[in-house]
Amino acid sequence: NTAITKTQGCISCKICSKWIHASCAKLSDKDLIALKAIKSSAFICAGCEYNLTNRHDNDSIAGDVRNLSKKFDEFIISNKDEQNSIKLALDDIKGEVSACLSEIKSDITKCNDRINGVETVAFSKISNLEAGCNALHRRLNRADFLISGLPEGLDDLMAPVIAVAAKFNVDLAKHDINHVCYINGKRNILVKLNSVANRDKIMRQYFKTRTLIHRLLLF
């Protein structure tokens, strides 16, 4: 707290330009003389020295922050590059999947067309076969006719068939008849002749009158 005078040993701070007693600055008389003798030397008070130290620490912290910020920016850029690479890879995968799906759809369409073609051909062939079978069936049964209204339990069916033919002026012998039997629960008699011509003669005569009844037959 002693006032600074020219008669007392004192020194000025290079930074803040304040004059400080040598004893307050903890400088000996030799230190004071040496500082005054060396022109390139400078005295820095404790307060300024503290500020310089803190500034250095702050600069160090700021540098660390800048380094962290730089590293973070580099990480962001690197992450963006990786994201772009992943996006490009995903786009490539999507393109390949889309191409595969299009190819699969095309194959399915072709298979469906082939199946439809096969079904059409098969249906046409089956229809032709059915028509052929029906034609053969009609040809096979061309010489057949039915007799109804005769009593059940007849032992000899040849006789009534020959009698029916005779009533229609058609002479039949047993060798003209291929097969004769009851059908439909013995309600009808199926007659299979060996000659279509004989069957047609009988049917023509039948359609002229349609009046033949079983009591007119002679057994």
Automatic annotation (TrEMBL):
InterPro entries cross-referenced by the UniProt entry: Znf_FYVE_PHD (IPR011011), Znf_RING/FYVE/PHD (IPR013083)
What protein name does the entry list?
A: Uncharacterized protein
Protein species of origin: Stomoxys calcitrans (Stable fly)
Gene that codes for this?
106095536
